[in-house]
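Subject: sequence -> structure tokens, single chain

Hey, anyone have a minute? Need the predicted structure for the following. Not urgent.
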Amino acid sequence: DPKPTFDQPLDLNLTDDLIVSPFADPSPPEQSGAPDTIADAVDFRPTDAVWRNGRLLVASTNTCTPDGDDTVRDCARFTELTTNGKSDPPDLRQDVLIGQDGYDSFMPGVGYAGDGTIHVAWTRSSSTSFADSMASYQGTSDDVSTIAAPTVVAAGQANYDGSRWGDYVGVAQDPQVPNAVWEANEYAATDNSWSTKVAQLETSGLRYVPISPVRVLDSRNGTGLSGKFQANTARAWNVAGVGSIDDNARAVTGNITIVNQQAKGHVSVTPTPTNSPTTSTLNFPTGESRANNLTATLSSSGTLAAVYVAGSGKTADVIFDVTGYYVDDDTAATYTSEEPVRVLDTRIGTGLGGVFNANVARRLVLGGVDFGGTTAVPADATAITGNLTATGATAKGHISITDSDPGSSEPPVSNLNFPAGDNRANGVTVTLDDPDTDGHTGIWLVYRSTSGAKTHVILDVTGYFTNDDSGAEFHPLNPGRILDTRSGAVLSGLTGVFSANHHRTLDVDGHWGVPAGATAITGNLTVVNQTNTGHISVTQDPNDSPTTSTLNAPLGDTRANGITAPLSTSPAGNVSATWANTGSTHLILDLSGYFE
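Reply:
Had a minute. Here:
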């Protein structure tokens, strides 16, 4: 048989072809003490290169005269090209020289974070300082050829008297944290040698913008994507820039709904298409429309993806509604978590009395209102997180939460779908309406069902957003399974069943990308293999008899609920859960982000 043939790539010299300006050989960097330079430290050759999504980054050391300086210095350089396949030459996107008055900047490494942020690491020294390890970045919404103020990652400790500088500098994506990378870079150590500093570099957190719900996906009518989801085949759709969602959105809150499924299974939502995900978002049987709240990280191009995991050949329709988004914007809202507070229970008259009658909207006042000695939602809050439960419904239906009176019209989204006679819960992140004449904000709830149907409704608030700096910022994560108590699960914080009415505590900070100092987490909680009916209560501190609930589960049904849960403060970084009723259950928790 003849040998296979391959397309030949373009043979280009980027500088000769005037695509990139020529490389210049730098001088030995200056340093404090004797010798006063670092001999043979650098030359003009590239020290790092990485390609991602049609863009090529190259790092090298060049010469420049920094602003305010009158001397030619060594300058760290990164060059970004837009590649155009094998047949067309690349285009220059940016060519950046990093210099500082009085300093030599040399031996850079460069890389992309998962969200597309460019991170640069390099070494800096001067006639009055030792060699430091430095870092900076260019955000996805920043102008090209700009860079943030440099940060010292490791300060130089002594004069370097060797004849060669450092073997390696590199920047690599953090697999769990989309806005972070890991860098390895050299600095001058105390014994007159060089040492390598390995560190995580992460950009600042994101802030929240609540919006009236926007439907970005409905495969039934071609919104976002056309045609049904085929089992085990992931599909992606646009989110950023759709409707009122900002073009620079990096994560979203929302609600995913499965309808018309031909077989039981689960849906997994991920930033990019994944046919065999290791986490899940929504579990469901056949023949029932089911929804789940989630906080989801977007891909670097502003998309989301989902896969319907079921038997081969089966199909389903998927709906996704966005209730808010996270952006890198200091004017948007920060988050304050709190131990869950019950603000609505129509069974006993908390918040609102009496059952919900079908198709009659009711307003729940929240902002500035005292609930049992606690003001769960301050007057200046713009949105809340919480857990919504329907119980005792006489007919199947759904509950929608809006920030204005929907009247007789159908709200654009549903927050909780349920059959008759079932206790059904779902997490919510929803915007508050404008203050009333008493200065109180609130939400509107409506139970959509057949005429004459009734249901009781419960709402527990777990936190709120305010447009100031008082709260925490959000850090999205790629979905990661931090807890799976079933036998054989790996890397799980707890093993063995949850027995009834006995809390168990999971150490969260320091695991799966959540750092020490985090105040709350977002994720997906799943109950599986329960031996009786019951409910799980997730609390900030250990509690064998909690007064709020997070996820209700009957016998024989795998159920999931998107959560936003506070972490404990003493000891810090823990979350507790209790299975209430009798029997036992296994529990799964997939993380999607944290607040800090």
